[in-house]
Structures are given as C-alpha cells and as structure tokens.
Amino acid sequence: MSRPSDLSQNPKASQAELKSGKPWKNLGSRFFTALAMSIFCIIPLYFGGYIWAALSTLLGARMLWEWIRMSDPNPSLLNIAVPFLGLLMSVTYLLTGYTQLTILVVLVTAVLCLLLRLKRDGALWSAFGCFYILVPMLFIIWLRGDEIGFQSEGFRQLFYLIIVVVAADTFAYFGGSYFKGPKMAPKLSPNKSWSGFVSGVLGACVIGGFAGHYFGFGSVFGAILAVPVAVVSVFGDFLESGLKRKLGVKDSGGLLPGHGGLLDRLDSLIMVVFVFAIVIILIPGFWDMSL
C-alpha cells in the first residue's frame, strides 16, 4: 500500500504555496464540510447512549484506517483487523459498564499491534495509534453518557468542548489569514501564525462565554475555561502535524474537502476531550453543571 504524496517534507514549497494562495481560499469547501458534519452528528449527540456510541465507533474506525494508511505501507489483514476489533470490544465493554475490561482491551490491542509488526519497521507506530485514537473515542462516548436532551450534563459538556474547539479553529483561520505575521512553528506547521493563535483564543473565549451562559454554568467560567481548551486544541493540531511529518504524509486522507482526512479534522477535538476527561475524572467537581 503506497503512502500519500508528501508536500510537508519540502517546507520551501509549502511556504511558497501559502504566499501565493489567497486568504480564505478554501472557505467554501470548509464551510460546507463543517455544515455537513454538524447535521450528521447533531441527532446522535442529542440522544447520546448507544446512538452516539455507534457514530463515535464509526468515526473511530475511519480514523484508525487513516492511521494504518499513514503509518504502515504494507499492512497484513491482521494488522488491520486487530485495532478494529479492539475498538469494537472496548466500546462494547464501556457501554455495558465493564471499565476495567475496557482498559484491558485497549492495552491488549496495543500490545498485539506491536507484536504483529515486530518483524517490520514501525512497530511502535502501530501501538501508539491504538492509544492515540481508541482512548479519546472512548472518552467521547463516556463523557456524553446516556441521558437524552440538550440539558443533559453530558450533552452540555461535550457540546461546549466541540463548539469552543470549532470557534478557536475558525477564528484562528480568519485571523491568521488576514493578519498573517510570524509563524508559531513553521517547520512543524507552516499554516499556524501567532496572529491566528491569538484570534483563536479570543474567539474561543467569546463563544465559550455565550455557551457558559446558555448552559447554566456561567459566562465568566465559560470564557475562562475556553482559554485552556483553545490552547490544548492547538497542541492537538501540532501533535498530528508532527506525526504526519514524521511519517512523511501531507494529509491523513481525502474524506473531507477543504480539511483532508477525518483525523485532520478531529485531531484538536480528540486531544481536548482526552485532557478534559482526565481532569473531570481526577477533579469531579471542577466543572459544576448544575442548572
């Protein structure tokens, strides 16, 4: 299996493309892709439970496939089947309340992926991909829970994280394209500028404040919480950019016009959910969702 063509290994070419491109040149395709994803996800997100778990499993399976495609140039049937089976089994155990078995399945899946590729290069990549995708997707299902409705705690928490991440990305896109200026890490991600970062954080605070007011945990708290959400989302984007550069690929796939692959679109969100799910587990009362 051949890897996608790599433009990211030629920074000068990437910089030339950025300079020659028009601001917001992909705005139309990005907007319609985001709109389609929102329509596709809102009903499962509203109902939660098994419906949301089914959608999350589908998204997780797609991201696993993109990861396999990026990290393994010639996967065997077992190299493909094991992580998919691990995803299905871990979600099943999570939904039935067997938390310890859920953790055990993730660990066993990662070890099996490692062992299956020991005779070839890149065994650690296969194991890392299991943790990188499975754990955040399980947290997304766990965080949403099975209560139905817009006012359920799981819906409010997860929806808040989603819209703040989207706001940070959107405002960073417009602000960075308009103001330009110094890059944050040009060798890692040539599109990220400090003006975009500041614009993204400010936009996230505004949207987070409105969301906090609407969802009943306070506009001030919502605006303040948006700052670490935006920062973690940028770190998630940088992490995936670094992984792609290390693996020699430009995009994780071509599923979403204007965005690339699904992993390219959700890299920030899965990092945010991962971090904040751990914080909620360790400090249950830090996010008071009482109405």
Summary, kept brief:
The chain is mostly helical and 291 residues long. The protein is 73% helix and 3% strand.
Major sheet: order of its strands? 1-2
The H/E string reads HHHHHHHEEHHH
How many domains, in number, for the residues?
A: 2
Q: What is the overall shape?
A: globular
Average pLDDT number: 88
As a percent range, the share of helical residues equals over 70%
Classify the secondary structure makeup into a structural class: mainly alpha
In DSSP terms (H or I, runs of 4 or more residues), the helix count works out at: 10
Biggest sheet character: 2 strands, antiparallel
Measured between the Cα atoms of the first and last residue, the distance is: 52 Å
Oligomer: single chain
The tally of strands reads 2
Low-confidence stretches: 1-21
Strand content: under 5%
What is the radius of gyration computed over CA atoms, rounded to a whole number of angstroms? 19 Å
Written account of the structure:
The chain has 291 residues and is an all-alpha fold. The chain folds into 2 domains: 16-46 and 149-291, no CATH class; 48-146, no CATH class. Helices cover 73% and strands 3% of the residues. Helix 5 (99-116) packs antiparallel against helix 6 (123-144), helix 7 runs antiparallel to helix 8 (194-215) and helix 8 (194-215) crosses helix 9 (219-247). The radius of gyration is 19 Å and the shape is globular.
